[in-house]
Design brief:
- The structure is a homodimer.
- By secondary structure, the first copy, chain A, is mainly alpha-helical.
- Chain A is built from ten helices and three strands, in the order αβααββααααααα.
- The first copy, chain A, has a three-stranded antiparallel β-sheet with strand order 1-3-2.
- In chain A, helix 6 packs across helix 8.
- The radius of gyration of chain A is 20 Å and the shape is globular.
- Chains A and B meet through helix 3, helix 4 and helix 7 of A and helix 3, helix 4 and helix 7 of B.
- Chain A binds a DNA duplex through helix 3.
DNA sequence: TATACATTTTCTGTATACAGGATTCAATGG
DNA sequence: CCATTGAATCCTGTATACAGAAAATGTATA
């Protein structure tokens, strides 16, 4: 046998879950959109059963809201909501770098530096999509270095809701070199295993992110109310 | 109409979810137990559909583990696992008290003091069940005072896995008055809105909890291997 | 006795059927 | 012209049916 190729079986519910998740995060399914089971079913070519199970999962993650006997809808993103998530993420991101300082292996440090360099290269290209991807990978290296599985999965699900604002955030920050500077600071602190400095750098990093995202939400809301004024509500 | 009595409709899936959750946390469904859909179905008098949806939710919470095409089982509690959860909870508990210092209202402080007193009274009775309940309520007051909905629901789901050890932990600590002392420290710090002191007190509180739980897990494991030695495996 | 293979059983995964609550819209009465 | 009611429709909640994978069991052969 060439390699471990077993267990590549993916239940439909998971495939549906991923697709819906993606659609919500990219805005293809906008906030407030109703998720009707039959409709989604024939759009995705599956029956209601996997759809329902996927919705149950999205519900527990907070991406969709259920009203009994009424149905599911894409959760509204409010400033409060996002602010709550960011508050939690701030604490967990700091925990991540602190743990990374204790536990990262030499290979982990190499990996981290590679991720940092890849990120800087991506910034040079000015390709938002690539920058975003490199940014995610950078953070993933740190998160994995904690070795804490629960933390890994929590970070994953708490990052989700803000993916919609990622591009704007990157456009905001990458031009000024802020992101690059912040990443360097984090890497340096972790390499020296200086938990305090790492915590500070990570805290600043997410505070900047918060500012950018909150500003974006306010812009969106403004635009929305303008549209409403001009009767552009669909 | 006498009062708002609407929306007391609870889908079966939620009822099943609660029952299974309870059964897992009380140990009625021990770790490793397979959750078979038809079996649970006729035990609870419902069809497979609500069972499956409840299992999807428990899975995302980490209480059950799925193996594709094999089925679901109650998640094994390992020391690593619990340690991961406690590590995250430590960060979040500290965040809770810090936020509470900023945001708690005068009424919140009253409520907190009441919860503290109720807890002390419960300790006097030496009734573990009652102590546990008062302890949960005490923490809930603090958590609610943060006003952060995401934090509230996360704390809820992160507390779950350790409910199994709660009684032992309380027997460990309440005798020595540790718990009472720690709670007092937390209340004092929050009342003075001294975030730093509150953080320290909360950190110590959960560190003690951790010690007790880890010790308990090791005891359990020892006992288990003894049973295995004597052929008491079922 | 042990091993390999066929068979049967037992579950999960997925689709579909059926019942009842909610919503809509039009007809009717004020 | 507006409010009310009732039927038609839509959609969720729940049950059930069917197909295929995995495990268990049994059987034959070395």
């Amino acid at each position: 046998m060439p390699a471990a190729k077993e267990e590549d079986f993916l239940p439909l519910r998971d495939s549906v879950y991923n697709k819906l998740r993606q659609a919500i995060l990219t805005g293809e399914l906008p906030a407030g959109e109703r998720l009707m089971e039959v409709h989604l079913g024939d759009k995705l070519g599956v029956s209601r059963t996997p759809i329902r199970e996927a919705i149950r999962m999205l519900e527990l993650e907070g991406l969709v809201t259920m009203i009994p006997r009424k149905g599911a809808m894409v959760s509204q993103i409010t400033e409060k909501n996002m602010s709550d998530v960011l508050e939690v993420r701030r604490a967990l991101d700091i925990l991540c770098v602190q743990l990374a300082c204790e536990r990262i292996t030499p290979e982990g440090i190499d990996e981290l530096k590679k991720a940092r360099d890849a990120f800087e290269k991506a910034v040079d290209t000015n390709d938002s999509r690539r920058i975003a991807q490199a940014d995610v990978e950078f953070h993933n290296v740190i998160i994995r270095a904690t070795g804490n599985d629960r933390l890994i999965s929590l970070e994953d699900s708490l990052s989700l809701p803000m993916y919609r604002y990622r591009y704007e955030y990157i456009k905001d920050s990458s031009g000024h070199g802020n992101l690059v500077k912040e990443h360097r600071g984090i890497v340096n602190a972790i390499e020296k295993r200086n938990a305090e400095a790492a915590a500070e750098a990570a805290g600043e990093h997410i505070d900047n992110q918060r500012r950018s995202i909150i500003r974006q939400i306010r812009l969106d809301r403004e635009e929305e109310s303008m549209n409403a004024l001009y009767g552009k509500r669909r």
